[in-house]
């Protein structure tokens, strides 16, 4: 009987580990982005239901922006999927824009946008190493989103007069 419970528990633990976890040098990056997206979505939903504050969401959004920016840089440094690095940098930039909206009159719309941003982070993050491969063999394109340093991102999340 113990063996059956142990086997079931092991299956649950290993089923939650993505297929690329031990193989891809970016696996921790992907996992951190997926986790950051899920946490952002949950915090936005908590604000929408009145169980949390916009200030707490702003702090989570700042963490998300830093994680997304770092993920984009890690993907570039490891010659990962160039489109995903660009997407993550775009998410960091969008998070910075939403920070201003959270402080203003568009707060309710910004909360929903932030929730969707968290959803998108989870959806675009690869779950298997095969999902990181470019099946078309297309050359690397350009990314219109500029790279921002941690200090540049932090400036969006500090209280401005």
What does this 3D model show about the protein?
By secondary structure, the protein is an all-alpha fold. It has one domain. Helices cover 66% and strands 0% of the residues. The protein contains 6 helices and no strands. Helix 4 runs parallel beside helix 6. The radius of gyration is 18 Å and the shape is globular. Residues 1-21 have low confidence and may be disordered.
Task: Write a compact overview of the structure shown.
With 161 residues, the protein is mainly alpha-helical. 66% of the residues lie in helices and 0% in strands.
Give the arrangement of secondary structure elements.
Elements: H1 2-15, H2 27-48, H3 54-77, H4 82-102, H5 107-124, H6 150-157
Helix pairs in contact: 2-3, 2-5, 3-4, 3-6, 4-5, 4-6
Q: What characteristics describe this protein?
A:
161 residues; mainly alpha; 6 helices; globular; disordered N terminus
């Amino acid at each position: 009987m113990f063996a059956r419970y142990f086997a079931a528990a092991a299956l649950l633990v290993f089923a939650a580990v993505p297929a690329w976890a031990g193989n891809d040098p970016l696996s921790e990056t992907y996992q951190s982005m997926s986790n950051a997206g899920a946490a952002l979505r949950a915090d936005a939903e908590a604000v929408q239901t009145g169980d949390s504050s916009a200030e707490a969401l702003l702090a989570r959004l700042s963490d998300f922006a830093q994680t997304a920016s770092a993920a984009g840089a890690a993907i570039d440094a490891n010659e990962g999927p160039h489109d995903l690095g660009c997407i993550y940098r775009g998410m960091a930039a969008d998070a910075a824009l939403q920070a201003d909206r959270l402080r203003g009159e568009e707060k309710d719309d910004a909360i929903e946008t932030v929730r969707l941003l968290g959803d998108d982070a989870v959806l675009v993050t690869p779950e298997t190493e095969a999902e990181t491969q470019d099946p078309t063999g297309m050359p690397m394109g350009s990314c219109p989103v500029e790279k921002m340093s941690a200090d540049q991102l932090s400036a969006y999340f500090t209280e401005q007069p």
